[in-house]
Amino acid sequence: MSQRSSSTFENECQKPFALSSVFRPGLFEGRVAIVTGGGTGIGKAIAKELLFLGCTVVIASRKKDRLASGAEEIRTWLTHTGQQATLHVLQCNIRNEEEVKSLISTTVLTYGKLDFLINNGGGQFISNTAEIRLKGWNAVVETNLTGTFLMCREAYNQWMKHHGGVIVNMAMDMWKGSPLMGHSGAARAGVVNLTKTLGVEWAQSNVRVNCVAPGSSIVSPTAAANYGDLNVFDGIGATIPMKRTGTVEEVSSAVCFLLSPGASFITGETIRIDGGQSFYTTPTYSLPDSKPTDKYSWQSCFDAEGPEAAKSKL
Ligand SMILES: NC(=O)c1ccc[n+]([C@@H]2O[C@H](COP(=O)([O-])OP(=O)(O)OC[C@H]3O[C@@H](n4cnc5c(N)ncnc54)[C@H](OP(=O)(O)O)[C@@H]3O)[C@@H](O)[C@H]2O)c1
């Protein structure tokens, strides 16, 4: 595994208590959410922003140690921000139907409801499609597509069918095919289509189902570690129209918008969060040598405005 570059994760390492949601404080007070993969990377940012906005959050994934260290970090951060919100940790492999049933039922029994489901948990490995073994193919498809289906179905059948709710799924930039990630591209395309189907079928129950599709450019140390190369994000920025990588906060804020009443007439939709990456094709146009666009992160807000940044911007 290569050494990580000094700058790639600098946002992650400084002032770990910085947070500045663009949404109003208390927006999600009284709400209950499950965030799969909520102990690391993008999912951890989503869990933090939801907690910051007053939501009770259950984070769930397979590995106890990852969940425990993620939860410890989030709880320490919560204490420092002065926010009072409940964080609950449950172990669950979203590929396992019984574990998914139990995750939803435990949440509903413990908190009496389930308002939001964020199907963030997932993953893949890099390989030429010709070299993917069936076991590896099935693992990725069962996690990213079947796991999302199981979570959606159980959330709906056990609670949302009769009480309404909002679901946000996770896709990726697979719009032009997914060289070296054929398994995940196929699974995420399935998630985008499933999102449309559920948006239509469950509208009658006041359940909205949407999706976010980050480019392969959202900098997270755990995601890089999964690929076995902590420099995996280096150099990507130059190939993106906005000339930079993305932040976990830029995914979290889109998720919070989709969960919010501001998105109450949006369902079945997928929002791309990729700095224009998926629209950029090379044959007739080459990106000019421009400067990176302004980045949004809690750290940059904190640096610009100090602790007062932890207040709503709207
Ligand atoms: N970073 C990017 O640029 C990017 C781009 C497009 C899409 N995505 C997707 O966005 C999501 C978050 O990614 P990230 O960048 O934050 O990477 P990450 O830190 O590796 O997050 C993946 C999370 O998913 C959980 N997970 C994996 N398999 C699971 C399973 N079978 N059951 C339950 N939880 C499972 C992992 O926890 P455990 O290991 O404890 O299970 C981990 O917390 C993933 O679905 C990823 O594929 C990321």
List the helices and strands and how they pair.
Layout: H1 10-13, E1 32-36, H2 41-52, E2 56-61, H3 64-81, E3 87-91, H4 97-111, E4 116-119, H5 134-163, E5 165-170, H6 182-201, E6 207-214, H7 221-226, H8 248-259, E7 270-273, H9 298-305
Parallel strand pairs: 1-2, 1-4, 2-3, 4-5, 5-6, 6-7
NADP nicotinamide-adenine-dinucleotide phosphate binds near residues 36, 94 and 218.
Description of the molecule:
The protein has 314 residues and is α/β, with parallel strands linked by helices. The chain has one domain: 3-Layer(aba) Sandwich (Rossmann fold). It contains 9 helices and 7 strands; from the N terminus they run αβαβαβαβαβαβααβα. Strands 3-2-1-4-5-6-7 form a 7-stranded parallel β-sheet, sandwiched between helices.
- For this structure, what is the CATH homologous superfamily? NAD(P)-binding Rossmann-like Domain
Classification by helices and strands? alpha/beta
Mean pLDDT across residues = 91
User: What is the tally of beta strands?
Assistant: 7
Largest sheet: 7 strands, parallel
Q: What's the structural domain tally? A: 1
Proportion of beta-strand residues: 5-15%
For the record, give the distance between the C-alpha atoms at the N and C termini, rounded to a whole number. Answer: 43 Å
The kinds of small molecule bound in this structure are: NADP nicotinamide-adenine-dinucleotide phosphate
Mind telling me which CATH architecture this is? 3-Layer(aba) Sandwich
- Please write the CATH class name: Alpha Beta
Subunit structure: Interacts with PEX5, probably required to target it into peroxisomes.
Keywords: Fatty acid biosynthesis, Fatty acid metabolism, Lipid biosynthesis, Lipid metabolism, NADP, Oxidoreductase, Peroxisome, Phosphoprotein
GO molecular function: trans-2-enoyl-CoA reductase (NADPH) activity
GO cellular component, one term: peroxisome
